[in-house]
Amino acid sequence: MAATLSVENLNTTFFTKAGEVKAVDGVSFEVDKGKILGLVGESGSGKTVTGFSILGLVDPPGRIVNGRILFGGEDLVQLSEESMRHIRGKRISTVFQDPMMTLNPVLRIDTQMIEALLAHEKMTGDAARQRARDALGQVGIPSPDERLKAYPHQFSGGMRQRVAIAIALLHRPELIIADEPTTALDVTIQAQILFEVQALCRESNTAMIWITHDLSVVAGLADDICVMYAGRLVETGTVDGVLDNPLHPYTRGLIGSVPSRNTRGRPLNQIPGMTPSMLSLPKGCAFRTRCAVADGACEEQPEITAPIDGRGVRCFHPHMDNPQ
Amino acid sequence: MTELANGLPLAAVSATEKAADVETPFQRFLSGYCESKVAIGAFFGFLVVLFLALACPWISPTNPYDLMQVDIMENRLPPGSARYSDGMIYWLGTDGQGRDMLSGIFYGLRTSLFVGAMSGVIALMLGTTVGLTAAYFGGRVDTVIMRIVDLQLSFPTILVALMLLAILGQGVDKIIIALVTVQWAYYARTIRSQALIERRREYIEAAQCLALGHRRIVFRHLLPNCMPPLIVVGTVQVAHAIALEATLSFLGLGLPPTEPSLGLLIANGFDYMLSGRYWISFYPGVALLIAIATINLMGDQLRDVLNPRLQK
Amino acid sequence: MTVYVIRRLLQAVLVIFIMTLIVFFGVNVIGNPIDILVDPDCDQACFEAAEKALGLDKPIIEQYFIFVENALQGNLGKSFVIGMPALPLIVERMPATLELALSAMILAIFTGIPLGMWAGLRPDSVSGKVIMGGSILGFSLPSFWVGLMMIMIFAVEFGLLPSTGRGETVTVGGIRLSFLTLDGLSHMILPAINLALYKISLVIRLTRAGMREAMHQDYVKFARAKGLSTTRVIFVHVMKNILIPVVTILGLELGNVIAFAVVTETIFSWPGMGKLIIDSIQVLDRPVIVAYLMITVFMFIFINLIVDLLYSLIDPRVRLQGIKA
Predict the structure, then answer these.
(1) Highest mean pLDDT of the ranges A243-247, B127-131, B256-260, C311-315
(2) Is C242 in CB contact (< 8 Å) with chain A?
(3) Cβ contacts (< 8 Å) between C217 and chain A: which residues?
């Protein structure tokens, strides 16, 4: 069975005045029906641009320069803007990071929900309102009739994110791209939303890409993980595989820097140095200037290899001494 | 650097950081400003205007206000005519009294720029002092001052200036007073809002902890950090002042005919225009336009460069 | 909301009171009008008689109280020159000014907003740059000079459009209007464009800046991610957000346009309040000056109030704060 979405060698570059920025550089992955893929990376690693590339929403000076995005038998990169518009919101929908910013502050909730419905389906205003109301109820918003007439600023952050999720679910899409949807929320609300999203996905067999910098979120949610660093995939695999046995030094660093009970009283591990500027990436492996095991070989760009079945890693010195 | 990077990752990172730090804020400002060719052009255009205004006694062909040099018989000559006495060319023609337009424009520019700059400087000093006082002391002082500022700003500048001139009469000093009166509030408001942001910063707290005097804290610590928006507003307001002065002089309420600014030159040409003698109004207007436009263009680029919200 | 309106009204009354003080005492410092109005051959007796007739012999404080008392009854004094009551003199000329100012505003909105939106959507295109260059030019052009040049080109050189007066007018409900006749309309074109020029530039810049800021907001991206058409994103999502600052500033600018009509009216001999006030200043016709000022102050306060209320209608966030306050 073909995957819902299959990204092959995606390259998205921003042509800025200061130079070319390869925000996404040769990224490939697949998401299957009903599966959740965790796309993990620091801010600036290109994970958000990957999401926008799939939606065809990369703004100038950025553009997709190479690669294929296969979705339902079509290559989204080749589609016209008008055909893309029919896919956006209907077959692929999104939830953004900051619920304070994603809803238009001067339009009422009902306007924003009904327009999303009418953009893809011919229906009467009343039917659309009914659908919007049901969608709000589905994501756990009490008294949806009243809330429909409210403005975004009258909602709390968590409620707004629920509204955004309700909008994303309106057309029962085949794929949802969630870009750090819980980062801006309280931990308790975060947990609720994670649980609900997971349930909704499993129920309707929707594929999902969950973009985050937070490994602990992905651990409980995703089926597969892709780790990105400086626009490139550095490690891929199943959640358990990657988290239990990280191969790439960067992934190891990420996992090591998550505080846990075992690390109490000891200094937290951290990755030395800073995220490199995308304008002046080190030659070869982008991580080598921060890497403890880097040597002269790393001045060449490593390719993705599969030292273990079902795993991929872009490193000359993958961490292999941890027998499974 | 590459050899270093292999063994000593941290050293490499800090070395690149140092290299970036060498650029001083002024250099960054300069390279930001020079990003726009139009802005560079505007800067040099403004230098030319400034030079003409400053050097006009030495470079203008005649002194249009020396009656000995003016022949009333040679009035309203079209551009390019020659003077009867010595064949000097009136490149831009002559006005209703037979004065050389080109010289008149040079002297007019001088007056216009002087009035604009003077009123700008005085309004800036007044507005800055008032605005800083309001922001630094806050509370009731702030409320009273800002009410006055709001009240002042709710009235159109031209109306206030018109009234003041009606009360004060004509004269260079009078028009400067009028321009300062209508403009100080803009500076006060700008600097206050900036100072309110800066006041909460740690360096002000630190200065207060050192028990420095109010005056020292305000002028040595607070003011330099409030400069960028002030510079932008200052540029725009000087251009405004020049335009407003010209308008008022045109209406016959600004400068007296003994010190003609560009506005008055244009007004003088108004009467002759209907008979097709366009040059008496046209050329002073072009000079005025160039003076104002170069300042505005510089101000535009300054706003882009100095605005932290637009910095990437 | 009611509390808010009442508070605003009280503020307005206070401002008007302060302005009567400033205006009256300010204007009455201007040189002695008797010198201008009375025959130079006039002797002391006729001089005093004239002074008495104009009420100028009384102490200035008393003059002020007489002024306030009369003003409350709608009497702002008689013009020294024309001998008519000042208030009706101005009110009679008000429609001409308002007609001009409003048409300039409408012109500014309907040309400025589309041009600004275009320039904001395509900041790097040639057309976008031309629009921006034009708006900088519009900012820098001294409007009185442009007025003269317009007269020269369109009236003198080509004889296309009339350059003085209001042309044929139609009286509607006691108000004379120019824009209802073809002749009146043709008389209005030049002055209205002249007055609008600066505002068009302003609207272009405001709209463009708002557009550029809004286009990068998450809600625009989200709206596009919902699959909405570009038209809907721009004309509903973006437009509603950028209209808020534009409407506010334009509302406040209406006062400015009315004031700047002084210049345009002088150039195009448009018989409005502005021309009247310039003439009055030149002959020191104090009652007219005072009356003009009082009326404009009143008008500005009224405009500001309307803008505030309008603002709260467009922006739901402000509306909520207003109710709480």
Answers:
(1) B127-131
(2) no
(3) 101
Is residue A167 within 8 A of residue A116, CB to CB? The reply is: yes
B39/B297 Cα distance (integer angstroms): 6
Q: What is the pLDDT of residue C322?
A: 39
C183 falls within a domain: yes
Query: Residue B35 pLDDT more than 60?
Result: yes
On whether residue C305 sits in a domain, the answer given is: no
Decide if A222 contacts A210 (C-beta within 8 A).
Answer: yes
Q: E strand or H helix at B26, and its extent? A: helix B25-33
At B307 the pLDDT is: 67
- At B258-298, the pLDDT tens digits run 777 888 888 888 877 777 777 888 888 899 999 998 998 88
Range in B24-38, C26-40, C148-162 the model is least confident about: C26-40
Q: Which long-range contacts (CB under 8 A, 24 or more apart) does C4-13 make?
A: C4/C322, C4/C325, C5/C309, C8/C305, C8/C308, C9/C305, C12/C301, C12/C305
pTM greater than 0.95: no
Q: Which residue has the higher pLDDT, C228 or B20?
A: C228
In a domain, C298, yes or no: no
Helix (H), strand (E) at residue B90: strand B89-90
Q: Helices H, strands E: what count in chain B?
A: 14, 2
Return the domain boundaries, chain B.
35-310
Q: What's the CATH class of domain A5-80+175-313?
A: alpha beta
DSSP 8-state code for residue C159 = -
Enumerate the β-bridge partners of residue A247.
none
Write out the residue range of the structural domain in which residue C256 sits.
91-282
Pairwise CA distance, residues B250 & B266, whole Å: 7
C218 contacts on A by Cβ (under 8 Å):
96-98, 101-102
Nearest CB to B10 within list A272, A288, A296: A272
Distance (Å, whole) CA A205 – CA C296: 68
Query: How many CB pairs below 8 Å do chains B and C form together?
Result: 111
Q: What is the pLDDT of residues B168-206, one digit of tens each?
A: 778 888 899 999 999 999 999 888 888 888 877 888 888
Interface confidence, given as ipTM, is 0.83
Taking the C-alpha atoms of residue A249 and residue A288, their distance in angstroms, rounded to an integer, is 10
So where are chain A's domains? Answer: 5-80+175-313, 99-170
Integer angstrom CA distances of residue C31 from B161, C35, C55, C284: 18, 8, 15, 8
Pair C32, C116 in one domain: no
Which chains does chain C touch, 3 or more C-beta pairs < 8 A?
A, B
Give residue-wise pLDDT tens across range B73-102: 677 777 777 776 776 777 677 777 777 888
Q: Which contiguous run of DSSP H or E holds residue C15?
A: helix C2-27
Per DSSP bridges, beta strands C170-172 and C175-177 are antiparallel
Query: Domain B35-310 adopts which CATH fold?
Result: MetI-like fold (1.10.3720)
pLDDT at C281 over 50: yes
Provide the token pair at C90: 């101005």
